[in-house]
Amino acid sequence: MATVEKMTPAKKAAAPSVSQINAEYVTHLANKYWAPNAKNRLPFDPKVMEDVYEKEILKSKFAIRKIMLLEFSQYLENYLWVNYSPEVSTNAFLMSICCIVNEKFRENVPAWEVFKKEPSHFPFFFKCVMEAVLAGEEAGLTLKEQTVLLVFLDHCFNSLEVDLIREEVQQLISLPMWMCLLPSRLQQELKKVPKLQKFWNLIKKKFDKMDAGAAEQARKERTFLSSLIQKFLGVLVSIPASEPVCMDRVHYCERFIELMIDLEALLPTRRWFNTVLDNAHLLVSCHLSSLVHRGKEGHLFCQLLDMLKFYTGFEINDQTGNALTEKEMTTLHYDKITSLQRAAFSHFPELQDFALSSVAAVDTRESLTKHFGHLSPNSLHRVASYLCLLPELPEGEDTTYEKEVLLELLVSRHERRISQIEQLNQMPLYPTEKIIWDENIVPTEYYSGEGCLALPKLNLQFLTLHDYLLRNFNLFRLESTYEIRQDIEDVVWRMKPWQSEYGGSVFGGWARMAQTITSFSIVEVAKPNIGESWPARVRADVTINLNVQDHIKNEWQGLRKHDVCFLITVRPNLPYGTRFDRRQPFMEQTGLAYVRGCEVQGMLDDKGRVIEEGPDPKPKLRGDSRTFRVWLDPNQYQQDMTSNIQSGDEDPYETFNVIMRRKPKENNFKAVLETIRNLMNTECVVPDWLHDIILGYGDPGSAHYSKMPNQISTLDFNDTFLSLDHLRSCFPGYTIKVTEGNPELQVFPFRITFPDSNKSDKGKKRTADEEMEVKEDKNLIVEPYVTPNRGPYPYNQPKRNTIQFTPTQIEAIRAGMQPGLTMVVGPPGTGKTDVAVQIISNLYHNFPEQRTLIVTHSNQALNQLFEKIMALDIDERHLLRLGHGEEELETEKDFSRYGRVNYVLARRLELLREVGRFQESLDVPGDVSYTCETAGHFYLYQVISRWEEYMSKVRPKQGKNVEVQAVAAHFPFHKYFANAPQPVFKGRSYEEDMDVAEGCYRHIKKIFTQLEEFRAFELLRSGLDRSKYLLVKEAKIIAMTCTHAALKRHDLVELGFKYDNILMEEAAQILEIETFIPLLLQNPADGNSRLKRWIMIGDHHQLPPVIKNMAFQKYSNMEQSLFTRFVRLGVPTIDLDAQGRARSSLCNLYNWRYKHLGNLPHVQQLPEFQVPNPGLTFDFQLINVEDFNGVGESEPNPYFYQNLAEAEYSVALYMYMRLLGYPADRISILTTYNGQKHLIRDVINQRCAGNPFFSQPNKVTTVDRFQGQQNDYIILSLVRTKAVGHLRDVRRLVVAMSRARLGLYIFARVSLFQNCFELTPAFNQLTARSLQLHIRPHEYYSQEQPRDASGQPDQIIKNMPEIANLVYNMYMNMIQTSQKYRQQQQQKIAPPPKPSGNEKEPVSSQDQEPQEETPMEQDAPEGETISEPNSEEAGEMKDDEKTSDHAKMPEHPGRDSDSDGDDKGGEKDL
């Protein structure tokens, strides 16, 4: 491992290994004083805590490895906080607590839980931190320690949702902090908002009444941030301009600016703080500081400063929180300048010119500097004090400020700012080499979480929708930049660019995803659009030579319109044949000079025209040379040309020599960025009831249906309830009043009228922990009704729901049918999809005119939904699926746009044939079944008239009854319904027969209404038009993935797409921005959004969206989904509480994470959940795996973790289960790392592939990829032996534990995982059982009976070589038994043979055995191949055999130093 550590760059924090943990001083102390499993802990000793701080933390300069150890050993939970009190509080105590809390934030584990349990001393502790951070050196704290305290404060300000923290922090950032303002500035601010003056007077009164101590404390709190700013300015000034600088000072400054940005970017903190910050002139001081001019050390500081400048001038009204429009911003700017001009005119005659100029002439930086530059410092001070920026200058005294400070103060306040949206529109969407390799913006994979970064953060609240979109835009752009960087580096390394002898470039390698450019030329630069300064479009031709294998050539020729490629300039400086070192910086080695993005328009044919995409066959091109026409980014082109002309920089467009493509699935970033940018340019209309919740303000429950003004009192639940008893059980606590007295008629479907509950809080009925004691109407009026007869044919009967929903599921369905926001938390196996499908079905029937949009994260989830929707009573002509995923739907039907068009056209012909048959049955002449139009006339003139005449005959006249026979006798359509089940009319009662007659007429009427709907398809001729009509008019339920919505928003809005309801599945796995875009796929009607319902179903206790770069994931919190953020904000959720997937014992491994997760009855009753797993003693087991040949985990590449012992053990257990007869498709092998996944696949290919006894398991994949899927038996490898790694994320643990239905077998290093605080609830249950695998090789899979306790004892497997031998011996036995069985078959012995008991001892001969073999032996060919599979296994035993295999795979574990002894022993045991 030492070599690996040397290889990796220093930035990666090396995680401590178990052996290091055990050898550490800290661990010895922990075992005595605070380790969770320590026996007889010693009492608290402050000396120990001081020692740990001095020796471990301070001495190591706050080394992450040391702090990780302390945090992991539960130092904070079991030692620091439980023993903290004002009496023992010291600097070391404070610092220790702050270090561990910061470490918890760095690791992304919950940090405040321990304080919430024991909150009493927290206020005192927080005051101590405030005093320490201000006292600094006087309190004996170094700058490094003060930086730690700053980071702690920043975490506090970012945790305002925690009540404990909010109570402390609120004192620092409320209106009273304005006591730090200049008196003149204070008056000016109070005048702006009249009611503030009233509040201010109250505050002063209160303050005057306080006693001295309280007043002093209040003053400290109110001036805290202001004093902190002054302290920071002191540190900033101490940084010299050119001499060497102590980096601790720079880090302090960076962290301080980060704190300022976070305070400015949250409305509750910004409201009062923004004015205080402005009053301190922090930005001016920073801009003029020497740190800004130090290139290397000041680079990150400058980037942070730009962010702070952006937020201080953000387009928002600080008091009301409303976003300011372009016009309001301009007005504010003009007001500032004109007030300055007035001041200049009346008090400063030397500024006469300035005062009389127009605003546009004087509001640039240049002209302001020109007008004010010649004034003396004293005059400048007087101007500033007149504007309430500085205190009055006393008569006869000179100012103490530098002239450049005073000038910058005035200029920066009054210069014209380019608006945020203009800045955004001028920004290129493709990253260039400057951004791609800037580690402050796009950190490498080695980001350890220590430093701060110039990145936006996604927390709970946002200033405005514009701010919300902008932060997401920047992060999305940078996350895709990170992936692009990886692709470019990979491709360029593979191409091996070297310098040729003549100074040019040669490429010594090749890459599948890149080609060298033979020629490149710009072919069009279009004129700019009006009001823009960049070209409308820029197009270029790129020629490449495709002298490559055919399949790669086809990939290049298959580039589609809008695919993104990258143009790269490489100028290598290493001579031909040099070896590249991937660990050294990339740009210097490869000589990469430029990267520019482009978008493919198409390939050119031999005449130079773009080959258009479409159904026509593509022309065949000769030769290998191909030219692509591409669009370049006009903004980028304009910037490059400007710098070329102004600064004489090189023109990058004449230098490109490599073009790179990317995988289409990962390459949709540009379309998503364009979508977000378009959203920011349009008037974003989010429904009023959602606006504040999305930004994170106001009452989080305000969009719950119980608080919505348009709540619907009566709902038709259709087939949701299976019976009246089911309905009663779903509404405990309610009195059910049934309108129908006859018990026989009390059958579903039901309409339910709910009590009007707008005033009460009943919506929280089952989501709050305690029942709401509200005196309210608890009566439900239930009305059973009969669905109208749909016709005499069996297929007319509607499909019915068969699921007996639980009360919480019913609450979720009810909430989903009501207007508002519904959030359903669905733990594993609780029927999320069934609830979603029932909501969709109920909305479809209750509101036939409304349209519902379904959005999911993956195509797989969409397919599951669709398969269940098709089983319900929904007309399939109303279903539509957008995107490319419909190929995987397990059905003959095609729900894509063109599939639906074909369905409609086929259905039209089918219905017209019916019309023809109908016409014959009525003997009407002519061809009425020719088109939908003629059919419509036929219905109008022939069918309706006959029906009306019939009704007039059979409708009862006043006081006269109609004969039962008359109903059938007069019926006009007997001949048409001759093919229905006879007799159509039973003749039992008048009502029954009339119902049948009306059903028949409904059947006919439906044919003609459908044809009327399909009439448009006769008028629209092209497939595209027809598919658009389908999308906009015909479909009622439209489904797509969130990525498709983000990519195609522009097209959907153009088409006039409309919808009323959104249902999102897997909502906790969707990125924040990809959840938001689907809300805005339609143009607002009359300035309002039509959206009525938003239903989100997800589980925030399972894994979040995948973010590849650790920095964005942790530092920017980009992995937080909108669903998770809403849960954190306190939006009411409905938590499904009964699972039906797994055995209850397996459910206990993860149900502690949920509120009340129980089991559905069938989990206790069905036999498959009752009987044990054959051949295995336990239904779940944690098996300890020690090092094999001295090796535990290994890391061939960074983060590519492998563990050979666990891989071999997992596969051996799989082979053992297969030999007992377990079906391969019911076993999946999961692991927590990609490296291990590949290793296990290698081992399986080596041991099992091509051998019919074993074959491949259902899946070998990572836990993350397997989310949302399940299998009966899961074998799980946790890989790590040195540090817990990312399994510390409890969400990953929950997913891992909840994939198995019947059996879960985990291989891990137990000593490592059992100490992890976050994982204890699961690992306590796992470690309660034996940590060695217990098996029962005499049992077979097809046994279904419970286990006999007095039977054979368990066999205990001590280590991995032992099970390898066992499997080998069982296998050899099976082969022999199989051979004997086959010989007996060939001898044609009359009775079917059973292997006799005395045949061979090792195999217990059970009746099932031969049945197991018979299918097997059909697969294995004749005798000579029988020994073939065993040659692979023999490699386990004989070292010299099959050595070729060993090149592919590490030596098989069976061949251990002592394995010969094991062999013999193993055979005897068997």
Describe the structure concisely.
The chain is 46% helix and 10% strand. By secondary structure, it is α/β, with parallel strands linked by helices.
List keywords for this structure.
alpha/beta, single chain, 7-stranded parallel β-sheet, globular, disordered N terminus, 6-stranded antiparallel barrel, 1470 residues, 58 helices
Topology:
Layout (H helix, E strand, L loop, with lengths): L1 H6 L10 H6 L1 H9 L12 H13 L5 H9 L2 H6 L10 H17 L5 H5 L4 H14 L7 H15 L5 H8 L12 H10 L1 H16 L2 H26 L9 H18 L2 H13 L2 H6 L7 H18 L13 H22 L4 H5 L2 H4 L2 H9 L3 H10 L16 H12 L5 H6 L7 H4 L28 H31 L1 E3 L5 E3 L6 E12 L12 E8 L4 H8 L6 E7 L15 H5 L1 E12 L21 E8 L1 H13 L11 E4 L7 H13 L6 H8 L18 E3 L7 H7 L4 E4 L11 E4 L25 E6 L22 H11 L2 E6 L6 H15 L5 E5 L2 H11 L9 E3 L15 H25 L10 H23 L9 H7 L19 H30 L3 H12 L2 E5 H14 L5 E4 L7 H5 L16 E6 L11 H5 L7 H8 L4 E2 L2 E2 L4 H4 L10 E2 L1 H5 L1 H4 L9 E5 L9 E4 L2 E3 L1 H16 L7 E5 L2 H14 L11 E4 L8 E7 L12 H8 L2 E9 L1 H4 ...
Parallel strand pairs: 10-12, 13-18, 13-19, 14-16, 14-17, 15-16, 17-18, 20-21, 22-28, 25-26, 25-27, 27-28
Antiparallel strand pairs: 1-2, 3-4, 3-8, 4-7, 5-6, 5-8, 6-7, 9-11, 11-12, 23-24, 29-30
Helix pairs in contact: 4-7, 5-7, 7-10, 10-15, 15-18, 22-24, 23-24, 27-31, 31-42, 34-35, 35-36, 37-40, 37-41, 38-40, 39-40, 49-50, 49-54, 54-55, 54-56, 54-58
